[in-house]
Amino acid sequence: MNRSFSEPQLQSKPGVLFIFFSQFYKFLRALGPVLLYFIIKGPKTDYTAQIIFGIAATLLLLLGFSVLSFYRFKFHIDYKNSEFVLQKGVFSTESISIPFSKIQQVYFKRSLLQRVIGVYSVVIDTAGSSGQEINIKALSESKAKDLQHVLMDAVNETNQHTEAANSDELTEEKKISSTLWNYKLSPLALLKLGLTSNYFRGVWLILIFVGSIYQQMGDFDLVQSDQYKEGLKGYLDAYSKPIELFILTALVFVGVFVIGMIISCVEIFIKYFDLNLTQTKESLELEMGLKTNTKISLKPKRVQLLRVVTNPIQKRLNLQETQIALASSQDNLSKTKISIPGLERMQIERVKRFLFSSPMRPGRVFKPAFILYIRLLILASLPLILTAVVASFLVANYMVEILSILFIIFGMLIIPYQYYWYRALSLEITPEFIIRRKGVWNQKTEIIELFKLQAVTVDQPVWYKKRQLYNYTFHTAGGAISFPLTSHKMQQYINYALYRVEINKQAWM
């Protein structure tokens, strides 16, 4: 008798529509400038028939490509070789095989289009992938859940054979799957989160959007450069003094900042809407998202690194964000993290107790050498020096005012900020953990269990030798953390940490 998914499977039939609309959306994005040109200028009546024919032909080609892509996308579970197999490709065939031992998790994602069509994305994350190696984007709800259960059961069965001594205990525990606690992020907490985080992300999105539109309009001669040159000249004539330019620029920045904050609030609401975190005996179940609904199951042994992020305002509101890094071939936490924002202190402690096999005890705390602060000041002063050099050529008559402003910025902002950043940086080594703390406004605590360390890099440039200073980098399968300019006294604690790694018999993933 054939086991589930042992034969090559197609996606659900509505997947043809999903592929078609996805390709149509990419086509619209690629031809955005052309469409913008026709909308503003209007098509010439002599070419109306050709335009309609071209659109119809394009839609037919996209439909044909979607059908071929649907039938060329097949997947199955190879139980004999203990691996998941995927074949895809329209013009060339790509075959991907993932051993069960490499699979980190299997979870669901749903975009708005997928909700309308009625399909799910099943994402399979692996330890050896630079990203999401497999994403099956169009399965029915029942088929998606069946694939998740069958695949994770096969993965767990493989892991239990690897850990034969604990297999009976794990099998018995697996039968009991009751909810221990549950936390749901309320709309009010989402609003607080939006108002207290990502201050400059919305501003950056506005600048990118405006710059992109302006460039596209310029490429198709929809704007005349002369009129903007005249407008810029009039602006400089009206506000020729540096103080006036500074005040007006500050007002514009405040306006853009407020709009950016509104955009950030909307983005956070869409991304983390209806966030629900549930702990069972064997996993943390996370579900969130309005535009793209994501369901993830996290197990302790899959977690490589934990980061807790907050800021002074969020501290007072009892809001913190947890970023969990799973195993990946990329040595970069930002590429492998799963973010869970808006957690209260109680939930953070519950997450730590569940994910970590040992309680957190105090250890030895190390601080960087004072020369790091000097280096930070030098690096931060370079943009100001460059600004002064450029200003000396453009507005030489106002150098006194410009230099005064630059000195105020350096003395009142840069010097204290870099000092507090230097003071906040620390590394703590305990018998079970390595903990790095950093950040002035966005305060981050990064935690690695010692037995999950993959390597420690010790770096000493020539100019460090006289002071006996070192840079350290701690590598895990889910990312790395570094600590600069530390004295040689830390070396014996590094050796102790590596010794703890060697004697520990726990599996790192």
Automatic annotation (TrEMBL):
<feature type="domain" description="YdbS-like PH">
    <location>
        <begin position="75"/>
        <end position="148"/>
    </location>
</feature>
<dbReference type="InterPro" id="IPR005182">
    <property type="entry name" value="YdbS-like_PH"/>
</dbReference>
<dbReference type="Pfam" id="PF03703">
    <property type="entry name" value="bPH_2"/>
</dbReference>
<keyword id="KW-1133">Transmembrane helix</keyword>
<feature type="domain" description="YdbS-like PH">
    <location>
        <begin position="422"/>
        <end position="485"/>
    </location>
</feature>
<feature type="transmembrane region" description="Helical">
    <location>
        <begin position="16"/>
        <end position="39"/>
    </location>
</feature>
<dbReference type="InterPro" id="IPR014529">
    <property type="entry name" value="UCP026631"/>
</dbReference>
<keyword id="KW-0472">Membrane</keyword>
<protein>
    <submittedName>
        <fullName>Putative membrane protein</fullName>
    </submittedName>
</protein>
<keyword id="KW-0812">Transmembrane</keyword>
<feature type="transmembrane region" description="Helical">
    <location>
        <begin position="199"/>
        <end position="217"/>
    </location>
</feature>
<feature type="transmembrane region" description="Helical">
    <location>
        <begin position="51"/>
        <end position="71"/>
    </location>
</feature>
<feature type="transmembrane region" description="Helical">
    <location>
        <begin position="370"/>
        <end position="396"/>
    </location>
</feature>
<feature type="transmembrane region" description="Helical">
    <location>
        <begin position="245"/>
        <end position="270"/>
    </location>
</feature>
<feature type="transmembrane region" description="Helical">
    <location>
        <begin position="402"/>
        <end position="422"/>
    </location>
</feature>
